[in-house]
Amino acid sequence: MPSSLETTKRERLTAELTNMPSWLRRPIGKASEISTVQRIIKQRNIHTICEEGRCPNRGECYANKTATFLLMGPTCTRSCAFCQVDKGHAPMPLDPDEAEKVAESVQLLGLKYVVLTAVARDDLADGGANQFVAAMEAIRRRTPQTQIEVLTPDFWGQGGLPAQQERIATVVGAEPACYNHNLETVERLQNPVRRGAKYDRSLYVLRYVKALNPNILTKSGLMLGLGETKDEIIHTMEDLRAVDCDRITIGQYMRPSLAHLPVEKYWTPEEFTELGEIARSLGFSHVRSAPLVRSSYHAGEE
Length: 302
Fold this sequence. Notes:
The protein is built from 11 helices and 10 strands.
């Protein structure tokens, strides 16, 4: 039988979900479309952030022929306080066949646009940069018409800045259609939210991508509801534009469990619309700002 503490935690989480604003509730999508993707992914023992993060938009994205693959296993070497991805123990060894499995899945699903992301793998000498490249190359061999976006970690780790630059350059050299790296939150909240990451370090990733190849679109994402202010959000968007970031996504943080950071505020759809208008006025060429927006939401749209 569950302990009284476990029962209390379950009741608290149920209460939070029950009190969630109506605009954050939506149907998950067609079961057939979700089960098709789940079957293909499970058969090949690979992962998508759509499933690992239980994204509320995955049914819609699958129907629109987009998906986000999670490279290098489901276990992260960092412990960000907002993220549902597995952490806290040793990550899996790299699968030498992962790139081909991902490419085969892209082909079977007929994906027009694919996002490749990954857990942080600070245990690897290259931070996992070559896994991104291998997956891109494998996809292009099978479905050269598929557009590929990458959503990478900051690649900070062993070797400091020179190693970080080399890892970013490795991925940029494979010429993705878009290079995404998320700030996640405003500068003041980085330490409690993104353990192991730094605001300036993340801005540098986007700056360095543009320095290497100005033609590659860059993108970043923010999640709201962690205690940030409107002025801080605007300042963050200004910082992103200062490093020539082209695209931005803004969505609501939704607490995965009681072990994660609590939601400090549910921003309204009207507030998201206003922030989206501000982002466009600052010069972002592609803006998605709404409560249920996530990093890869409508990623393939112009």
